[in-house]
């Protein structure tokens, strides 16, 4: 595609050509100058910020025939061949498509041999977070004891997915998003040298759209320049990227402020007729109200606004909304934007969200709703209603007292009476709801060989969960396995919050995948509270004792015994009971 050509033509070939990463460049140049280059680097940061480019420039700098030099000459044979990718000793590996342990083992074998074409072997592993756990383990050994002629440069957009053992063996550099001014200046320079006419507002808007990625900015510029024949205007950028002008957002905000639902729906229809998508409009509108909030709360906010190019012109619009209204609008739009991802008719949701913003609540002054609620809470209820409630409570208390006296209700159920020694405590509903349905079977298998095997490997399970996701491990380690039944592992937790968090679908999926990996077969995770498990164990023991006692009594039972006589003696005493044939 043609828009890739501009990026390739203007891709930095030396450190001085790179934009926005001066602190990293200076550190690398000092290391080369002092001959203190590390054997492993980790370049992390958002996409399009120059991670892979910096890696290739560093590979040229350490292998330049006129160096090692702080800047590659880009004229010697080594520099030119590394730029074209013709040097076998400098390899760029895509970890997304070479993520297995076999590929890394093959790399380990090649690392042993000395370079044949240049001074130092350089392996650039892009998107390194895509490697499997086994591949990371294989790479770790090489990073621990690397040959002196090898340099590894790992690049990733998600450094949090890398094992700590890998990160600790690399010098880490975090690439930042390129600032708006640096991007705009660079785009202007490229446009001038390419003979393109570009408005300042157009270049500034392209820089805002790229979200700090220079590569994305160049791709957008080339695409628009190809379509417009070399002239790039603000309107053309809006048309090509599906954006909406700030003026149109201003009209939309004004209609929402007035509650003019008809005008709002007509504007939405116009957006759709212009070929704009509902989800893109929702995203841009969210940015717009966010910018209004920034304009209202922060002075000199020019550099913090995303879709409003001239914030000073929109101070009046921002002032027409209260902070509470803007927060409410942003929350509402954000909610419907989340719902829009799964909707078959996103335009309808967009219209519903705007109609909700046009509702009566938008006309209520800031804080009025909260004051109204507080006022309702402090106003005393009608005295007649209070007296009626008191009479009903008194009548219920009398009924309860009569039932207790008649024996219909055990005294233990009364809050005022003494608890009977034979009355059982009321079951805890919340606790019972957490007890598995097949609890008896779990109790029967609490010492099974399969459970013993799982218990022996539980340390490996916890370690696997920690490697997969540290936050899940922090909650899950509160639980202990107590039984295994077929394909289910029962884990008892001391803390209810830890149990509930571990039960969340995303966390549970992580745990069950580790159980499958470490235990060799798929297991379902079932949880309960530890106190309920202990109570179930005690209940099972008591029940077993009662059964043995009854069985023993039955075996030793006198066939001529009359149990009703024993019961009468127990109730009334021997002095009051006379036995007659």
How would you characterize this protein structure?
The chain is α/β, with parallel strands linked by helices. 56% of the residues lie in helices and 9% in strands. The protein has 28 helices and 10 strands. A 5-stranded parallel β-sheet has the order 2-3-4-1-5, with helices on one face. The chain has a 3-stranded mixed β-sheet with strand order 8-9-10. Strands 6-7 form a two-stranded parallel ribbon. About 8% of the residues have low confidence.
List keywords for this structure.
581 residues, 10 strands, 5-stranded parallel beta sheet
Largest sheet: 5 strands, parallel
The general outline is flat
Unreliable sequence segments? 363-381, 408-433
Please tally the β strands and state the result.
10
- The helix tally amounts to 28
Quaternary structure state of the chains depicted? single chain
| Gyration radius, in Å | 37 Å
Structural class: alpha/beta
First-to-last CA distance: 112 Å
Strand percentage: 5-15%
**Largest sheet, order of strands side by side?**
2-3-4-1-5
Mean pLDDT metric:
76
Report the helical percentage: 55-70%
Tell me the layout of helices and strands:
Layout: H1 2-9, H2 22-33, E1 40-44, H3 51-63, H4 77-84, E2 90-94, H5 101-111, E3 121-126, H6 133-144, E4 150-156, H7 164-167, E5 171-174, H8 180-193, E6 197-198, H9 200-209, H10 214-228, E7 231-232, H11 234-241, H12 246-258, H13 261-273, H14 278-297, H15 315-319, H16 323-340, H17 346-357, H18 368-378, H19 383-406, H20 429-432, H21 439-444, H22 449-456, H23 458-468, H24 470-476, E8 479-485, E9 488-493, H25 496-503, H26 505-519, E10 524-529, H27 530-555, H28 563-572
Parallel strand pairs: 1-4, 1-5, 2-3, 3-4, 6-7, 9-10
Antiparallel strand pairs: 8-9
Helix pairs in contact: 1-10, 3-4, 5-6, 8-9, 9-10, 9-11, 13-17, 14-16, 16-17, 23-24, 23-26
């Amino acid at each position: 595609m043609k828009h890739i050509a501009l990026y390739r033509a203007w891709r930095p070939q030396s450190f001085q050509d790179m934009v926005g990463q001066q602190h990293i460049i200076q550190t690398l140049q000092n290391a080369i100058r002092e001959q203190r280059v590390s054997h492993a680097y980790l370049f992390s940061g958002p996409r399009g910020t120059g991670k892979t480019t910096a890696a290739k420039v560093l590979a040229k700098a350490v292998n330049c025939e006129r160096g090692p030099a702080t800047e590659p000459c880009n004229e010697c044979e080594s520099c030119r061949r590394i730029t074209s990718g013709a040097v076998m000793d400098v390899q760029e590996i895509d970890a997304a498509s070479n993520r297995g342990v076999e590929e890394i083992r093959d790399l380990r074998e090649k690392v042993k041999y000395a370079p044949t074409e240049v001074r130092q072997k350089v392996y650039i592993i892009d998107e390194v977070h895509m490697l499997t756990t086994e591949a990371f383990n294989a790479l770790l050994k090489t990073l621990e004891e690397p040959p002196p002629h090898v340099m590894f440069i790992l690049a990733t957009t998600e450094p949090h997915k890398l094992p700590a053992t890998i990160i600790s063996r690399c010098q880490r550099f975090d690439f930042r998003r390129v600032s708006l001014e640096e991007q705009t200046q660079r785009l202007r320079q490229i446009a001038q040298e390419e003979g393109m006419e570009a408005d300042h507002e157009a270049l500034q808007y392209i820089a805002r759209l790229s979200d700090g990625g220079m590569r994305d900015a160049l791709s957008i510029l080339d695409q628009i320049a190809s379509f417009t024949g070399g002239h790039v205007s603000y309107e053309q950028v809006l048309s090509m990227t599906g954006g909406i002008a700030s003026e149109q957002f201003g009209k939309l905000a004004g209609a929402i402020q007035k509650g003019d639902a008809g005008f709002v729906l007509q504007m939405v229809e116009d957006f759709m007729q212009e070929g704009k998508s509902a989800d893109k409009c929702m995203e841009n509108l969210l940015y717009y109200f966010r910018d209004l909030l920034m304009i209202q709360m922060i002075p000199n906010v020019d550099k913090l606004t995303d879709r409003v190019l001239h914030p000073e012109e929109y101070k009046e619009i921002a002032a027409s909304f209260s902070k509470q209204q803007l927060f409410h609008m942003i929350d509402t739009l954000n909610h419907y934007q989340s719902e829009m991802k799964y909707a078959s008719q996103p335009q309808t949701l967009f219209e519903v969200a705007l109609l909700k913003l046009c509702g009566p609540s938008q006309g209520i002054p800031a804080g009025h709703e909260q004051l109204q609620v507080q006022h309702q809470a402090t106003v005393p209820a009608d005295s007649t209603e209070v007296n009626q409630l008191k009479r009903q409570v008194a009548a219920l208390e009398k009924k309860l007292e009569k039932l207790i006296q008649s024996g219909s209700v055990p005294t233990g159920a009364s809050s005022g009476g003494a608890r009977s020694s034979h009355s059982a405590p009321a079951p805890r509903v919340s606790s019972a709801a957490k007890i598995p349905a097949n609890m008896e079977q779990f109790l029967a298998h609490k010492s099974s060989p399969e459970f013993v095997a799982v218990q022996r490997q539980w340390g490996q399970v916890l370690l696997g969960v920690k490697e997969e996701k540290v936050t899940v491990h922090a909650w899950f380690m509160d639980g202990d396995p107590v039984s295994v039944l077929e394909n289910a592992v029962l884990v008892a937790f001391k803390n209810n919050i830890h149990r509930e968090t571990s039960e969340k679908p995303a966390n549970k999926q992580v745990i069950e995948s580790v159980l499958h990996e470490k235990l060799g077969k798929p297991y379902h995770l079932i949880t309960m509270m530890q106190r309920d498990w202990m109570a179930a164990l005690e209940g099972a023991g008591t029940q077993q004792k009662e059964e043995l006692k009854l069985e023993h009594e039955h075996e030793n039972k006198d066939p001529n015994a009359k149990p009703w006589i024993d019961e009468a003696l127990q109730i009334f005493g021997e002095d009051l009971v006379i036995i007659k044939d």
